[in-house]
Automatic annotation (TrEMBL), chain A:
Protein name as it appears in the record: Alpha/beta hydrolase
SUPFAM superfamilies: alpha/beta-Hydrolases
Keywords assigned by UniProt, alphabetized: Hydrolase
Stretch forming the signal peptide: none
Residue ranges of every copy of the AB hydrolase-1 domain listed in the record: 34-247
Record-annotated membrane-spanning stretches: none
GO CC annotation: membrane
GO molecular function: hydrolase activity
Gene3D superfamilies: alpha/beta hydrolase
Protein origin, superkingdom: Bacteria
From TrEMBL, chain B:
InterPro entries, A to Z: FAD/NAD-bd_sf, Flavin_mOase, Flavin_mOase-like, FMO-like
Lineage of the organism: Bacteria, Bacillati, Actinomycetota, Actinomycetes, Micromonosporales
Family according to the record: Belongs to the FMO family.
The protein's name: Monooxygenase
Intracellular or extracellular location(s): Endoplasmic reticulum membrane
Length: 265, 464
């Protein structure tokens, strides 16, 4: 654990206006709030589609934050992973009770960093894009036209076939991909090159969920990520990368909430 | 959550009184900033916690409703947010660089609610006695605040004292003070500049509080004299358009030698603030970092407007005037003594903290009793940054130490003998600070946190 933090002291992350979408249960059952963190290109809207209401329906106060430069949040130039993690910690600390952090895609990479700065009740990494060269190789093979420009600071474009299973009608899928924005060039590069995250504070349980048919995150990466936290991934075959927007969105969120109800272990 | 099991567990006795055994539970004294973070970190490490708080709310001195609170209406932080907040619970982005004291209180209240700490706090209960018991455990005697009701004694596995050190006013024994006909108040009783309106005011003390009150007197009183013992360095709140402490840390991270840093910062202050002698202030008789930092952008401005007349130390009080050590006399209506506070641990025998006759506790890292492995003090530091981050890591170290003791007593014993018991008192300051009670607990945040880092790593190493 690193307690000398000159970055945080001498060069704090600049503040920004943040979009947080929420759905809260009608009756407070004392369940912990869940904060969803979208991946690169996505905004809080991706969770507002189905997951927020569903989680609230099951008694969990549910919130989704848009990272800076995404969705309805403000932007600062040259946003880094550290700035994104700051956004997540700020959103979590603003909730009335200790929150569960759920990161999707590259949002999971951000959540790993946020866990080192905020003692979450639990962490969930959904279809985690934790970066590194193998992920880059896979993306380059499957979608060279969308991946290559990102190397030069352009926008990383994910195709609808990477993000969704064939069960999602084309028009709907096109609607979603049309809403995608972009992460900063710096953060995109940090997908490839970044330091390993500092250990999570407060020793929270961490769950990894994903799909073996995800065309962004290979199954081996899911296994590797889960093993880091001493477990195995929960798998939902047949789903695309965007678990929260795919046709069978209900299954992963139910599994996550079941896991939380059992105390997350 | 732990619940009281008083009704069924009075199996122990001490001097004919029943003692209720609380098992492995840890006792925290005080629910101010240090107590709250102690509860949170002990809970995070799996301990049951009983915290006793004499007041009816959290926040300690930062809660202006508390009768011992030293805050005054206009008090703002003097360390910027990154140095003030708990490292795992940041203050909101939309708060200013230097929040107001009421924001600090709401921050502490939100912290208590966010981590659900209130169920572990017994409000309106003061600690009367903390005595060692068999097996390195502690008997803690409490009663309702104000002395009502019966005393009760509970036995705990460990005690973390977080009773604060800025609540018992220190008023020097000036000659002739009793005969002085004007009003003398300690800064702890000063709340609002309306008290000074139209009066001739003498503010005593060059600390941050003294400077703040002198600035308020300059704006509201008819005259203001500001008496200090020596010349100080006055750091502005902003340097180069950034909070000054952030600039200082940008320099610190370069790991330059102390002398170079002193030269650099003195150079910057000279450029930003200028020659203090020109304002009639005494020039500092020491290098920067050798006294507790004073952060005030307005003092010199008001000296320049003639609102504040800097004067030297007080020699004696007369019936209607105060004599200063340059031979002059001033005639104030009100004297505000911003002369600081004394640490007090009435519920503990002085030997427990190895206190000197002056009352200065001698603890490892200002936190760990060398004699009692299950007794620690949280928050007994004065720092060149905010204190909350330091107490956070102190209490993490305390929790990890107590965990290790429980899990591997023998290796814990070796660790204790090898580090805590052996290490002599060290100043955790970069520079050689002035040897006054003001600087008993002075630390530099980087040096001190490095030492804590070493201890936390050491504990993890023993554990592995």
């Amino acid at each position: 654990m690193k307690i000398i933090r000159f970055d945080d002291w001498a060069d704090p992350v600049p503040p920004v206006r943040r979009e947080v979408l929420s759905a809260t249960p009608e009756l407070d059952e004392g369940k912990p709030p869940v904060l969803f963190v979208p991946g690169f290109g996505h905004g809080a809207w991706a969770f507002a589609e189905f997951w927020l209401e569903h989680a609230a329906g099951r008694g969990f106060p549910a919130h989704a934050v848009s990272l800076r430069g995404h969705g309805g949040s403000g932007d600062t130039p040259g946003a880094s992973l550290r700035a994104y993690a700051h956004d997540v910690v700020q959103a979590a600390a603003s909730l009335p009770r200790q929150a569960v952090l759920v990161g999707h895609g590259a949002g999971a990479l951000v959540v790993e960093r946020a866990l080192a700065r905020y003692p979450a009740r639990a962490g969930v990494l959904a279809a985690p894009v934790l970066g590194g060269w193998p992920t880059f190789g896979a993306a380059l093979r499957r979608n060279p036209g969308g991946t290559l420009p990102a190397v030069f600071g352009g926008r990383l474009r994910l195709s609808r076939r990477q993000l969704f299973s064939r069960e999602v009608p084309d028009a709907v899928a096109r609607g979603y991909t049309g809403r995608l924005g972009r992460a900063s060039a710096r953060a995109q590069w940090q997908l490839l090159l970044h330091r390993a995250p500092e250990p999570a504070v407060g020793d929270p349980p961490v769950l990894v969920v994903g799909s073996p048919d995800d065309r962004v995150v290979p199954a081996s990466a899911l296994t590797r990520a889960a093993r880091r936290y001493g477990g195995a991934p929960l798998l939902f075959p047949g789903m695309g990368h965007d678990l929260m927007l795919d046709a069978r969105w209900r299954e992963p969120i139910d599994a996550i909430l079941d896991w939380l109800e059992k105390g997350g272990s | 959550m732990t619940t009281s099991t008083d009704h069924d567990s009075a199996t122990l006795w001490r001097d004919g009184r029943p003692v209720y055994d609380r098992g492995e539970t840890v006792c925290v004294v005080g629910a101010g900033p240090s107590g709250l973070v102690a509860i949170k970190n002990l809970r995070e490490h799996g301990f049951g916690v009983d915290c006793y708080e004499r007041e009816t709310g959290v926040g300690g001195g930062w809660n202006w409703r508390h009768d011992r609170s030293p805050v005054y209406g206009s008090a703002h932080l003097i360390s910027s947010k990154p140095f003030t907040q708990y490292p795992d619970f940041p203050m909101p982005d939309d708060w200013p660089d230097y929040p107001h004291h009421s924001q600090v209180l709401s921050y502490l209240e939100r912290y208590a609610d966010h981590f659900d700490l209130r169920p572990h706090i017994w409000f309106g209960t003061e600690v009367v006695k903390v005595e060692p018991a068999d097996g390195l455990r502690w008997d803690v005697t409490t009663r309702s605040t104000g002395g009502y009701g019966a005393e009760r004694t509970h036995r705990y596995a460990a005690v973390v004292v977080a009773n604060g050190h800025n609540w018992s006013p220190n008023l020097p024994a000036y000659e002739g003070l009793d005969d002085f006909k004007g009003r003398v108040v300690h800064s702890s009783a000063y709340k609002d500049p309306a008290e000074l309106r139209g009066k001739r005011v003498l503010v005593v003390g060059g600390g941050n509080t003294g400077c703040d009150i002198a600035v308020e007197a300059a704006q509201h009183a008819s005259r203001c004299w500001h008496s200090t013992r020596r010349g100080y360095w006055y750091a502005p709140k902003y340097l180069l358009g950034r909070p000054a402490d952030q600039v200082n840390d940008a320099i610190l991270r370069l790991r330059l030698p102390l002398r170079t840093r002193q030269w650099l910062l003195q150079r910057m202050l000279r450029l930003a603030v200028g020659d203090l002698g020109r304002f009639g202030l005494r020039r500092p008789d020491h290098k920067v970092f050798e006294t507790h930092p004073i952060v005030n952008s307005q003092l010199i401005y008001h000296v320049g407007h003639g609102g504040i007349a800097p004067v030297p130390d007080i020699v004696r009080f007369r019936q209607y005037s105060v004599e200063l050590n340059d031979g002059t006399e001033v005639e104030p209506d009100v004297v505000v003594a911003a002369t600081g506070y004394r640490p007090r641990f009435e519920f503990l025998a002085p030997e427990a903290l190895a206190a000197t006759t002056e009352g200065r506790p001698r603890l490892h890292l200002h936190a760990f009793s060398r004699r009692h492995p299950t007794l620690a003090v949280a928050g007994l530091v004065e720092s060149d940054s905010g204190i909350l981050p330091l107490v956070h890591w102190q209490t993490v170290a305390i929790a990890r130490w107590l965990r290790l003791r429980e899990a591997a007593p023998q290796r814990a014993g070796e660790f204790w003998a090898g580090t805590v018991a052996k290490e002599t008192d060290r100043p955790w300051t970069g520079a050689k600070v002035k040897d006054t009670p003001r600087h008993w607990f002075e630390v530099s945040h980087v040096d001190y946190l490095r030492a804590l880092q070493k201890m936390i790593d050491g504990l993890a190493g023993v554990r592995a």
